[in-house]
Fold:
Amino acid sequence: AKALGKGRVDIFEPEMHARVEKTTRIEHDLNTVLTRNELEIYYQPIVNLQSMTIEGFEALLRWKHPELGNIPPDDFIGIAEGSGIIHHIGQWVLYNACEQIVKWNRLYGGESEFFISVNLSARQVSHSNIIPLIRDMLEGAAFNPAKLHLEVTETLLITDQETAKRNMAELKQLGVQLSADDFGKGYSSLTYLQNYSFNSMKIDKEFVQDMETGGKGKRLVSSLVRLARDFDLSVIAEGVENEQQLRHLQTFSCHYGQGFYLCPPLPSEDIDVILIKGGH
Ligand code: C2E
Ligand code: CA
Ligand code: CA
Ligand code: CA
Structure:
């Protein structure tokens, strides 16, 4: 396409046009997503690979758009971060996910309570409001802070380092657990482990899936598990899609697994059914 002047292009690929239009629509509709009650949280069990019992859940956001259908988080989280609406959405997720886990713990928790793992975007972690927000939430919900796990990715390092570092330390003070999400996908992972006091590490599904393709993939995952253990972190492998991957992870003594083969992300009613049957 040839530019005809400032901001003008003569040929606009139809595909690109559709994409831009969809993004504009998402941007616009995000403003009312909470008032229109279109968000839902799905829960994916995190399974102890030794006992094969459910110990916690990751909260995964779903947007059921009345016209565009289901919009995956990867298609709107970035946009929400740009507009600042991520803070409202993030707060909504925290409150609802914590309320849900309190309920499950009351009904099915038994002696060992389930943990809830919530994704935080870099923007949220470097925001000044995050500490009071989580402190208030913990007080209101009256549950063990150690059962709230916050998943953060490495992009934190690149953006607002100082604030993020301070906030992470304060979050730690509140007693919540910090989890290094998508570990190894960035480029400064070891510094990252050194600078922040994580409790756990999540191995991205890409690495787990690469185990099949040959010796190197397997060695990479086993090294990551060993690295986590050396740093006294518990380690969670995501994207476990088959029996073989599960066996490998068990051989490497990976603590936890998460994936379609174990259980897909599900609406809370479906998790209720699993818990009633005593599937943990
Ligand atoms: P993530 O944190 O890396 O989450 C794991 C993704 O893998 C989820 O995608 C999950 O549905 C998917 N998954 C689970 N098991 C399997 C499997 O066996 N195979 C494969 N191929 N995929 C599996 P999802 O739900 O589409 O979420 C995408 C990303 O959106 C998440 O990646 C996370 O970064 C972000 N996200 C989701 N919910 C939230 C939220 O509440 N807040 C923020 N800030 N980000 C969120
Ligand atoms: Ca995650
Ligand atoms: Ca991610
Ligand atoms: Ca991931």
